[in-house]
Amino acid sequence: MQAHEIAVTPPTVRMDDPVSKAVQLMVVNRLPGLVVVDDDDRPIAVLPGTQVLRLTIPESYRDDPALVRTVDEIHADLFWHGPGKLTVGDCLPTPVAKPTTVAPDATLLEVATVMANKRSPLIAVVDRDGRLIGAVTLERLLTSLAVAGPND
């Protein structure tokens, strides 16, 4: 099997889209992240859901579990309102890392290797011109590997 055979057509976002839109797209489409594209539909980044989640937690709390336990449930719920004004671009590290991509004819082993090495639950599948044609999610890859027969 090849990447294009298991790729899904993912919703995409742009750098200036609100992060709330990105979260909504991830939830509705059950995706672990989103591909961020430019005006020519070329991937410029992959936004993992974990990066959005990380931004909801104030920096002083991120590395201190003891401090986190001091926050009661009512006040902890207020942290989820923090990302409201952020854009997708605000969620990406600076400089923005090159997106993780594979060619449509990449084998499942190639996709798995890239995904594991880059620690990315979402891999963009791009054509020769670098335009997005689909994406492979970790769930889709694992499902395909689990059901693949010896002739696949």
From TrEMBL:
<keyword id="KW-0418">Kinase</keyword>
<dbReference type="Pfam" id="PF00571">
    <property type="entry name" value="CBS"/>
</dbReference>
<dbReference type="GO" id="GO:0016301">
    <property type="term" value="F:kinase activity"/>
</dbReference>
<keyword id="KW-0808">Transferase</keyword>
<dbReference type="InterPro" id="IPR000644">
    <property type="entry name" value="CBS_dom"/>
</dbReference>
<keyword id="KW-0129">CBS domain</keyword>
<dbReference type="InterPro" id="IPR051257">
    <property type="entry name" value="Diverse_CBS-Domain"/>
</dbReference>
<protein>
    <submittedName>
        <fullName>Histidine kinase</fullName>
    </submittedName>
</protein>
<feature type="domain" description="CBS">
    <location>
        <begin position="1"/>
        <end position="65"/>
    </location>
</feature>
<dbReference type="InterPro" id="IPR046342">
    <property type="entry name" value="CBS_dom_sf"/>
</dbReference>
<feature type="domain" description="CBS">
    <location>
        <begin position="93"/>
        <end position="152"/>
    </location>
</feature>
